[in-house]
Design goal:
Elements (H helix, E strand, L loop, with lengths): L14 H28 L5 H15 L1
Helix pairs in contact: 1-2
C-alpha cells in the first residue's frame, strides 16, 4: 500500500516542461491566426506586403 509518497526519480524529468512548451506554441499559433483573421476582416484592402509587415510586428511582440 502506498501512503502517497513516491520516488521522484522514477518520473520523467522533462515531460511537464515539454507540455508547457507545446501549450505555449499552440497558443502562439492560435493568436497569430486570430490576428490574421482580424486584419482580413477589418482591413480587407491592405496589400499582402502590409499584412505581412503587420504579422511580422505582431510575432515580434509575442516573443
Amino acid at each position: 500500500m502506498s501512503d502517497g509518497n513516491f520516488n521522484r526519480a522514477l518520473l520523467p524529468k522533462n515531460e511537464l516542461t515539454a507540455g508547457i512548451r507545446a501549450g505555449k506554441a499552440q497558443m502562439r499559433t492560435k493568436a497569430e491566426q486570430a490576428f490574421l483573421q482580424t486584419i482580413k476582416t477589418y482591413y480587407p484592402d491592405l496589400s499582402p506586403e502590409q499584412q505581412e509587415s503587420m504579422m511580422k510586428h505582431f510575432k515580434e511582440l509575442l516573443k
